[in-house]
Design brief:
Elements (H helix, E strand, L loop, with lengths): L14 H11 L7 E4 L9 H16 L3 E6 L9 H14 L7 E3 L4 H13 L3 E4 L3 H7 L17 H13 L8 E4 L14 E5 L13 E3 L1 H12 L3 E5 L6 H9 L8 E5 L2 E3 L6 H9 L14 H7 L3 H11 L6 E3 L1 H15 L2 E2 L1 E2 L2 E6 L7 E7 L9 E7 L1 E5 L19 E4 L4 E9 L5 E9 L16 E2 L1 E3 L4 E8 L22 E9 L11 E4 L3 E5 L10 E6 L9
Bound molecules: adenosine-5'-triphosphate (ATP) and magnesium ion.
Length: about 550
């Protein structure tokens, strides 16, 4: 058996780290500045974590800095609820932007001035075509586009119209500002892309100051330039936008020339990652909210019991490259399993309780066992676990007629009660319908755990909870949100796993768990890793979420 995996202290290299290293060595940059640029139109998901770990990780490892910049150019979809949650999730993941919190909307006036600059130099024009007409004029991958009849307006006319757009004279969609580049370019992004549109909408930051808003392509690179970003890292879909990114920087009097690099986005099996789809799951109540423990959002993973460390390890492990690939959900699950194996204290909990009565144990008496909280880490201490004549055991740990190879309790057989005694099963009691409702046994006081000679071999060890001391709890077991590895197509919602959550009530916990604070994580022996639900759990009625099982049971199904 190999030792527990070493904690990764060194981030594996990747092509972006090599670029940064080379730029620092050559003196091209003395400090690197990266940014994480979320649109505040949803909650962050595990794909964003990849980008956060990459951007903040580069800044951390090369003594640079990373900005958090909200790409808030679309007031119609934005919400302060999203902004706040994004900040909280970045902090939770373990990263900090310090004083470098920015909003693209901070730059609206500068962006506007630069738009006027393009107009003045003949590189932008106001177009009266409708969105649909613009689409029709754009051409295809094999055919060039056609020029708008408004393309050759004079700079004076364009400037006048653009100022009137700003002052609110025109209705939404009546006009746009377009870059004047090349309608025949093989790159469709260069076929006179739209830079500004009219949108009479109130903005969370700028209120009603603006009724024209810059498009992503016009805001993004220029924001990078204003902030002095050295390495502007985005996902591969933006590769074809890079010529436009560079065209704009080359044609504007920007204070700095950032460079864009692309890497492949994270695709994770058995879930969806587009914010539009996540939003739809929330709105259609397929899940209980953005923080439903089945969601791939950072708030969902947190509520499920994932640690920030496990997500960072996952992001390092999957690496950063330039080819699109799918990562199996089991890799994410293995990261949290490994982390919790080291850090989570152990406890006993019975999920599906069956009464066990020890006939020769004195009624009304009890005793306490001092049990280690972690089998390999003595520093995690011990706790007292009460024991008495009546216990709860797992229903699955008893079989009246054992199948071949069954090593746990059945009439005439012995097992060890974890950290306590060896018991011998005498019989079981059934209700009129024939269901086993109670198991009877005797115990051997000489086999008390820790006593000399108590090591007598038995085939099985089972966990238990003393019935009069037990704490009742609700336990939620989760499975993958989708039944298929790549939920896609128009009927992607039909691929939701109907059994993605199972709620167990009347579970029995050892009493030490009574004081467990929200978000506290445990290994419930033999049952998996669990954490106290941060929303629904109360001391009077505890609720636990299963983060992950002890072993990967999925790949063996
Ligand atoms: P979605 O497509 O889910 O709506 P988005 O790309 O529009 O996501 P943004 O808020 O614009 O979401 O993303 C912020 C940053 O996170 C961007 O730099 C984007 O490239 C990166 N990002 C988004 N999704 C992923 C992913 N799956 N893997 C890696 N990085 C991602
Ligand atoms: Mg985006």
């Amino acid at each position: 058996m190999s030792d527990a995996p070493e904690k990764e202290t060194v981030t594996p290299t990747n092509f972006l780290r090599q670029i940064v290293e080379a730029d620092l060595t050559s003196g091209k940059h003395t400090t690197i500045i990266t940014r994480f640029p979320p649109e505040p139109n949803g909650y962050l998901h595990i794909g964003h974590a990849k980008s956060i770990c990459l951007n903040f990780g580069l800044a951390r490892d090369f003594n640079g800095r990373c900005h958090l910049r909200f790409d808030d150019t679309n007031p119609a979809k934005e919400d302060v609820e999203f902004t706040e949650s994004i900040k909280e999730s970045v902090h939770w993941l373990g990263f900090d932007w310090g004083e470098h919190l920015y909003y693209a909307s901070n730059y609206f006036e500068q962006l506007y001035q630069w738009a006027e600059h393009l107009i003045t130099t003949g590189k932008a024009y106001v177009d009266d075509l409708t969105a649909e007409e613009i689409r029709q004029h754009r051409g295809t991958l094999t055919e060039p586009g056609t020029q708008s009849p408004y393309r050759n307006r004079s700079a004076e006319e364009n400037l006048d119209l653009f100022r009137r757009m700003r002052s609110g004279e025109f209705a939404d969609g009546a006009k746009v500002l377009r870059a004047r580049i090349d309608m025949a370019s093989p790159n469709i992004n260069l076929r006179d892309p739209v830079l500004y549109r009219i949108l009479h909408a109130s903005h969370p930051h700028t209120g009603d100051a603006w009724c024209i808003y810059p498009m992503y392509d016009f805001a993004h690179g220029q924001s990078d330039a204003i902030e002095g970003i050295t390495h502007s890292i985005c996902t591969l879909e933006f590769e074809d936008h890079r010529p436009l990114y560079e065209w704009l920087l080359n044609n504007l009097p920007v204070p700095h020339q950032p460079r864009q690099y692309e890497f492949s986005r994270l695709n994770l099996s058995y879930t969806v990652m587009s914010k539009r789809k996540l939003m739809q799951l929330v709105q259609d109540r397929d899940v209980r909210g953005w923080d439903d423990p089945r969601m791939p959002t950072l708030v969902g993973l947190r509520r499920r019991g994932y640690t920030p460390e496990s997500i960072r390890t996952f992001c390092e492990r999957i690496g950063v490259g330039r080819s699109d690939s799918w990562i199996d959900m089991s890799i994410l699950e293995e990261s949290v399993r490994e982390d919790l194996n080291e850090r989570a204290p152990r406890a006993m909990a019975v999920l599906s309780p069956l009464k066990l009565v020890i006939e020769n144990y004195p009624a009304g008496e009890d005793e306490e066992f001092i049990v280690a909280n972690h089998p390999q880490n003595a520093e995690m201490g011990t706790r007292a676990v009460p024991f008495s004549r009546e216990l709860w055991i797992e229903r699955d740990d008893f079989m009246e007629e054992p199948v071949k190879g069954f090593k746990r309790l059945s009439p005439g057989q012995e097992v060890r009660l974890r950290a306590a005694y060896i018991i011998h099963c005498t019989e079981c009691i059934k209700d009129p319908a024939g269901n086993v409702v109670e198991v009877r046994c005797t115990y051997d006081p000489e086999t008390k755990s820790g006593l000399p000679g108590a090591e007598r071999k038995v085939k099985g060890v089972i966990h238990w909870v003393s019935a009069p001391h037990a704490l009742d709890a609700e336990i939620r077991l989760y499975d993958r949100l989708f039944a298929l590895p790549n939920p896609s197509g128009d009927d992607w919602k039909q691929q939701i796993n109907p059994d993605s959550v199972e709620v167990l009530t009347g579970c029995k916990l050892e009493p030490s768990l009574k004081a467990a604070a929200a978000e506290k994580r445990f290994q419930f022996e033999r049952n998996g890793y669990f954490c106290v639900d941060m929303k629904d759990s109360t001391p009077a009625s505890p609720v636990f979420n299963r983060t992950v099982t002890l072993r990967d049971s999925w790949t063996k199904r």
